[in-house]
Amino acid sequence: MNRDAELVKKLLETETQGKRRIAQAREENAQLVKEAKDRAHREIEAFQRQEEAKLVELQTKNAAEIVQISKDLDERVTREINALNNYASSHIDEAAKLIVKVVLGQ
């Protein structure tokens, strides 16, 4: 019986060690999962910061281009208005003579 008791004792010790190893493996697994999540979170934050910086850069560039385009359009409109005014001024005398001729029948 002594031998049977020793076998039972060894089996119980082996079972206890197995349970401890399983618990330790679970803890290590939980720690690895936590570390992986933390690392992924940091990488996502870094990526997000990079993309936000790119967006700000594009917005700044676009704002500068919009200002330049607006300035160019203002200059073009001013030139066109001046050209039309010059054209109208140069032909106003001729138009006045035509109106007088039609109205007075001369």
Describe this structure in words.
- This protein has one domain.
- Helix content is 97%, strand content 0%.
- It is built from one helix and no strands.
- The chain is rod-shaped, with a radius of gyration of 45 Å.
Give me the Rg, rounded.
45 Å
Instruction: Note poorly predicted spans.
Output: none
Secondary-structure element order, N to C: H
**Proportion of residues in extended strands:** under 5%
> Main beta sheet: strand number and arrangement?
none
**Alpha plus pi helix count:** 1
Task: Give the proportion of residues in helices.
Answer: over 70%
How many domain regions? 1
Say how many strands there are. 0
Instruction: Output mean pLDDT.
Output: 91
Given helix and strand content, the structural type is: mainly alpha
- The CA-CA distance between the termini, in Å, is 147 Å
Specify the overall morphology.
rod-shaped
